[in-house]
Amino acid sequence: MEQTIKKSRRAMARVKDVMRLEGWMAPSVKLTLLDTVVRSVMLYATGVWAGNLLNIQETRNKWMKKLSVIYNMGLRAATGLDRRIPLWVLYVTAKRVAVHIVIRKIVWRYAGYLRNMKEEQVRQG
Description:
By secondary structure, the chain is an all-alpha fold. It has one domain (2-124). It has helices at 2-21, 27-43, 46-51, 57-79, 87-94, 99-124. α4 crosses α5. It is elongated, with a radius of gyration of 17 Å. 18% of the residues are buried. The model has no long low-confidence stretch (mean pLDDT 82).
């Protein structure tokens, strides 16, 4: 999990540098860049590492908060919205969903896959 946070921060720094250099870039292009670079790094193998965190409340909140801060910072940079703007306005403006919701969806999908795989093995065995 620490590696995911570090890699996400590095990716975010690279994306923010590009966003600053290319002042002419449209917000939709910036959001696509954010999703392609930062979100893909952030969510890589989420089903595996986050599945263990679902049962541990304080640990889950700690990591989800760190990932959310990184992603929200990117959304604000891409849309140009100030930090004082509420998160729900940020998500609506960017037409994106909060990272913690995306992570939970991936984990539940992965858990369903594992459950189906186990049931299939029982049928064959």
